[in-house]
Automatic annotation (TrEMBL):
<feature type="signal peptide">
    <location>
        <begin position="1"/>
        <end position="22"/>
    </location>
</feature>
<feature type="compositionally biased region" description="Polar residues">
    <location>
        <begin position="36"/>
        <end position="45"/>
    </location>
</feature>
<feature type="region of interest" description="Disordered">
    <location>
        <begin position="28"/>
        <end position="53"/>
    </location>
</feature>
<keyword id="KW-0732">Signal</keyword>
<protein>
    <recommendedName>
        <fullName>Lipoprotein</fullName>
    </recommendedName>
</protein>
Length: 156
């Protein structure tokens, strides 16, 4: 009985894979008849869609940026403010250099589900840090941190 139900399920799945349209051809795959090809023509322009490679949102606001000197480089410590708590996957995302002497970071995080209230302003703080070696991009003299509501810039 169990095998019969399995076989019947497989047949139903395979039967749903190919349906025949009114032109006599198959609606899916390359098994359609030669008569159905080229009967409907349309022309359209491709939509200009800008795909963001990082699905995380910008942190709402950068409240402070602190540079801590260490041996061989600097630690960039960024604090952000949000309306609610619960942000995750927080990161400073380095953007490709445009050759203008600016080291650009985007302050990104995955936002929380709506409705998570934060009791204090400290609970709504978001922190991220990154180490920048003295040998990394020595031509860049300005550090820029971008959030959704503001951009903070520091000279190195």
């Amino acid at each position: 009985m169990k095998n019969f139900v399995s076989v019947l399920g497989c047949i139903a799945l395979l039967a749903g894979c190919s349906t025949v349209n009114s032109a006599g051809g198959s609606s899916g795959g390359s098994a359609g008849s030669a008569k159905s090809w080229g009967t409907k023509q349309s022309e359209s322009q491709p939509a200009a869609v800008e795909i963001d490679p990082d699905p995380r949102a910008f942190v709402p606001m950068v409240s402070s940026v602190v540079l801590n000197r260490t041996k061989g480089g600097v630690i960039i410590h960024v604090t952000g403010d949000a309306a609610q708590q619960g942000y995750s996957e927080v990161e400073l995302v380095l953007l490709p250099s445009e050759g203008d002497g600016v080291l650009q970071y985007q302050f990104r995080a995955t936002p929380p589900k709506p409705g998570i209230a934060a009791p204090t302003s400290r609970a709504r703080e978001i922190h991220a840090a990154v180490f920048l070696s003295d040998l990394d991009r020595p031509e860049d003299r300005t550090i820029s941190i971008e959030a959704s509501q503001n951009i903070k810039r520091l000279r190195r």
